[in-house]
Amino acid sequence: MPATSVFGPFRLEPAVRTLYRDGKVVKLGSRAFDILVMLVERRGTVVTPRELMAVAWQGLVVGESNVRVQIANLRQALGRDCEGAGYIASIPGRGYAFLARVERLVQTQPPPSPSPTWRSGTWSWRWIGPTA
Q: Tell me, what CATH number does 51's domain have?
């Protein structure tokens, strides 16, 4: 599963299939979300419509116009960055590229949950592990 990515005011969390803008959920369709994940993962490189179709439609035969509709939906949802540029560029005759700088967030392991320990003949739920 791709890592959580942050770009501009957005936070993309593929694991829970959610895009946030300033902490609020941005509604995206399933196909638009799949396309966005692929574009963000391959930031700065050209992704062909055929590659996007393979990810978003998984084996269904669709035309490139379907990709154009999803890209238009994404552009509308994302808007423009603080400098007025769009996040997704069309590369004529080749495909699309994601332009924004992307920061990948490292997933840390959650702290271990306390487990019961045997102490003086009784079970205790007191945490006796390392303290933070």
A: 1.10.10.10
The domain containing residue 23 runs over which residues?
5-104
127 found inside a domain:
no
Rounded to 10°, the helix 64-78/49-56 angle is: 80
- Using left for φ > 0, alpha for ψ between -120 and 50, and beta otherwise, residue 44 falls in left
Query: How many structural domains comprise the chain?
Result: 1
Output the pTM of the full model.
0.76
Contacts of 29 (CB under 8 A, 6+ apart): 70, 73
- pLDDT (tens, 9 = 90+) of the chain, 132 residues, equals 678 999 999 999 999 999 999 999 999 999 999 999 999 999 999 999 999 999 999 988 888 899 999 999 999 999 877 655 689 999 999 999 999 999 988 765 554 555 555 555 555 455 555 555
